[in-house]
């Protein structure tokens, strides 16, 4: 599956304190925070809960674990293939922590 990541949402905080904490509470497979970035083949540490949209989907936003590089400028707006086992958390606060 491919996703893209758009700038300008990282300072949009939720009640969980960080988007990493938000992902830990609400990811669909109830996974613990992974060691590696969700980008396919990336062996950097997962450090941030990144806001992404699925390329073939609705305009819903999700949080997935990314490294600094994949959440950074270089990849803004670009399609990124993610690992098959990636667990997504809905980013919509009204559906999750602020329900
Ligand atoms: Zn939250
Ligand atoms: Zn990465």
* Secondary-structure element string: EHEEEE
Low-confidence stretches: none
Tell me the β content: 15-25%
| Total of DSSP H or I helical runs spanning 4+ residues | 1
Briefly note the structural class of the backbone: mainly beta
User: How many domains make up the 3D coordinates?
Assistant: 1
Terminal residue distance: 28 Å
How many strands, what sense, and barrel or not for the largest sheet? 5 strands, antiparallel
Bound molecules: zinc ion
Alpha carbon gyration radius:
12 Å
> How would you write the strand order of the largest sheet?
4-1-2-3-5
Mean pLDDT figure = 92
Q: Helical percent range? A: under 10%
Overall spatial form:
globular
Record field, number of beta strands: 5
Task: Describe the structure in your own words.
The chain is mainly beta and 99 residues long. It has one domain (2-95). 8% of the residues lie in helices and 21% in strands. It contains 1 helix and 5 strands; from the N terminus they run E-H-E-E-E-E. It has one helix spanning 19-26, and strands at residues 2-5, 48-54, 62-66, 79-81, 89-90. A 5-stranded antiparallel beta sheet has the order 4-1-2-3-5, covered by helices on one side. The longest helix is centred in the first third of the chain and has 8 residues, at 19-26. The chain is globular, with a radius of gyration of 12 Å. The chain starts with a strand and ends in a 9-residue tail after the last strand. The relative contact order is 0.32. The mean pLDDT is 92. Residues 37, 39, 42, 44, 66-67, 69-70 line the site of one zinc ion.
């Amino acid at each position: 599956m491919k996703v893209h990541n758009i700038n300008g949402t990282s300072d949009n905080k939720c009640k969980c304190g960080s988007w990493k904490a938000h992902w830990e509470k609400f990811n669909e497979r109830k996974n613990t925070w992974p060691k590696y970035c969700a980008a396919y083949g990336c062996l950097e540490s997962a450090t941030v809960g990144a806001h992404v949209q699925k390329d073939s989907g609705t305009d819903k936003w999700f949080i997935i674990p990314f490294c600094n590089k994949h959440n950074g400028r270089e990849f803004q707006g670009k399609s990124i293939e993610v690992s098959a086992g990636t667990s997504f958390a809905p980013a919509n606060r009204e559906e999750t922590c602020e329900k």
